[in-house]
Amino acid sequence: MNCFEEDAAEEEEQEQAVAFHPYREEEAASQISRLRRVRAERDGAAVAAALARLERDAREDRNVMPAALDAVSAYATVGEVCGVFKKVFGTYQEPVRF
Fold first, then answer.
1. What are the residue ranges spanned by the domains of the chain?
2. pLDDT of 13 higher than 70
């Protein structure tokens, strides 16, 4: 018997112990409204330029942190920054191993 092996019932109990936050429609609507307001009020050209620099630096294997900071300082969203990284590097696919 492996001393590091856990009992299957105990392992299942640990997996079920994760609590998820409930989805609250009013909070989601508030966040969406705030996001729309930020996008309407920000300088779209500055955001586009910052995201283009971020993409260029990522493609050229440079340190992307300065460009990422410039992008968020211009009010680029986390989704927009992540979209640049996804475009350049793709999405990680965990290898299937048996």
1. 44-98
2. no
User: By the 8 A CB rule, do 67 and 53 touch?
Assistant: yes
Q: Report d(CA 54, CA 48) in Å as an integer.
A: 10
Alpha carbon distance 11, 88 (integer Å): 38
Cα distance between residue 15 and residue 80, in whole Å:
32
List the structure tokens of 18.
Answer: 């994760």
Question: C-alpha 92: how far from its chain's center?
Answer: 13
- Mean pLDDT of the region 45-69: 98
Nearest-angstrom CA–CA distance, 64 and 55: 9
What the block records as the tokens of 12 is 């299942």
Q: In the structure encoding, which two tokens stand for residue 52, read together?
A: 């283009």
